[in-house]
Design brief:
The protein contains two helices and no strands. The chain is mostly helical.
Length: 65
């Protein structure tokens, strides 16, 4: 009854990294393993970079009195 709650934008990264984890058990050929690893890394990097924009911080100092 336990559900994993993840944002929708994380689904592809989650699924591909599960595939990456279990691919050795199912003896996937080396070329397919490399493709899965590359896809998993790409999706994970997209998620890690999500909403990671750098914005300038503006500080205004005002003197009272």
């Amino acid at each position: 009854t336990d559900n994993i709650v993840i944002p929708e934008y994380f689904y592809d990264a989650f699924i591909m990294n599960i595939c990456r984890t279990v691919m050795y058990k199912f003896a996937t050929d080396p070329q397919k393993r490399a493709e899965i690893k590359a896809d998993a890394d790409e999706y994970l990097n997209e998620v890690l970079a999500f909403d990671n924009a750098v914005y300038p911080i503006e500080v205004k100092v005002q003197q009272y009195g």
